[in-house]
Design the sequence.
């Protein structure tokens, strides 16, 4: 099986939780896709790195990250998968608010100013989380080339409205949820 097929099987078996939940946006849903159970899983996380690199390989970026916490292990999986392929790819973490002490940074990691960066998420429903990261990255002087998620739950229109390309490895149909 390919990495993409293997990762889909991992998500279906370990990441989908059925039952009433309140989402980040405040909306209610009948299922939750808990991708922390995938991006922090020793078998699935390396697949995440390779699948997300393959999905975005034509985009020409040299740093990757997004809004903490969901985006963080996606970005580091990509960093390590890129290193294994001989490619130097930096990661960064966008804080939900600027740190009040220490370096007082909103974006942690190597500087992103003047660089082409990819904004990632584990999953997105409204686009709100990746677009918050995009705004912070643009304020920091980065050029955001696109947004990419592992599983899309419906964020395409919001991301297109922000003028950005959007890539997703899987949608709800792939998971048998739509
Ligand atoms: O904002 P949306 O585009 O609709 O996407 C949904 C968000 O919900 C989850 O994070 P959550 O807000 O639960 O926070 P966490 O990453 O800190 O767990 C997920 O990781 C996305 O960031
Ligand atoms: O919209 C969300 O908050 C959300 C949905 C989902 O399936 N998984 C997740 O982590 N967040």
Sequence:
């Amino acid at each position: 099986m390919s990495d993409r097929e293997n990762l889909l099987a991992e998500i279906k078996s370990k990441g989908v939780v059925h039952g009433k939940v309140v989402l980040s946006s405040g909306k209610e849903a009948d299922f939750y896709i808990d991708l922390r159970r995938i991006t922090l899983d020793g078998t699935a996380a390396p697949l995440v790195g390779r699948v997300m690199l393959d999905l975005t390989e034509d985009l020409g970026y040299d740093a990757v990250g997004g809004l903490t916490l969901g985006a963080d292990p996606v970005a580091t999986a990509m960093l390590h998968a890129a290193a294994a392929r001989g490619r130097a790819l930096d990661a960064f973490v966008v804080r939900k608010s600027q740190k009040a002490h220490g370096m007082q940074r909103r974006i942690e990691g190597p500087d992103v100013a003047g660089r082409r960066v990819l904004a990632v998420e584990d999953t997105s429903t409204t686009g709100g989380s990746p677009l918050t990261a995009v705004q912070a990255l643009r304020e920091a002087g980065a050029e955001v080339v696109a947004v990419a998620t592992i599983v899309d739950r419906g964020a395409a229109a919001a991301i297109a409205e922000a003028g950005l390309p959007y890539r997703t490895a899987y949608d709800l149909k792939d998971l048998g949820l739509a």
